[in-house]
Amino acid sequence: MLCLRLWKVNVVKNKAVFLDRDGVIIHEKHHLREIAQVEFISSAAAAIKKLNSKFIVIVISNQAVVARKLCTEQDVKKVNQFIQTELEKQGAKIDAFYFCPHHPKFSGDCECRKPKIGMLVQAKKDFNLNFANTFFVGDKTVDIQTGKNAGCKTILVKTGYAGSDKEFNVQPDITAEDILDAVEKILKTN
Ligand SMILES: [Mg+2]
Ligand SMILES: [Zn+2]
Questions:
Q1: Cα 13 to averaged position of ligand 1 atoms, centre (Å)
Q2: Is the pLDDT of residue 119 over 60?
Q3: CATH number of the domain where residue 35 is located
Q4: Ligand found nearest the CA of 107
Q5: According to a count of CB atoms within 10 Å of the terminal CB, is the N or C end of the chain lower?
């Protein structure tokens, strides 16, 4: 029997923007652990709203505050839910939040802590992403290293640490003043 495959299966991969949380969407507070400490970067909601029509928007953050026993995973989820609720009031939406609660010193090694790409690989499976179409926006060199490790395009914002941590010797593909400038640069070419 002859089997003719007359159609071409065309699986369209989604485009995404990975966003670091602290220093990109909300102001960097050392070891943020509760809603009372959340203070939005003023352009964050407008920026995310602009992305929503074209990109899947995913937050990727290291939250070693859990490994350090400064708060629980539930507390991190509460903060993320608060961020989502506040953004939604302004018509913006995060499609998913991924966070790594580990720290090698306190909880042993893991596959998710940036600059490892465990969270990105999980998001890729969950949302059928193509990393080549995907941007990583962050304020620390670890974010840029993570994006590069996955083969994403990388954008360093000048809010938060603005790359001043110098933990990794990496150069971003693009630099931006803040999350809104980053989004405008993404949308110019996509
Ligand atoms: Mg950060
Ligand atoms: Zn982890």
A1: 27
A2: yes
A3: 3.40.50.1000
A4: 2
A5: N
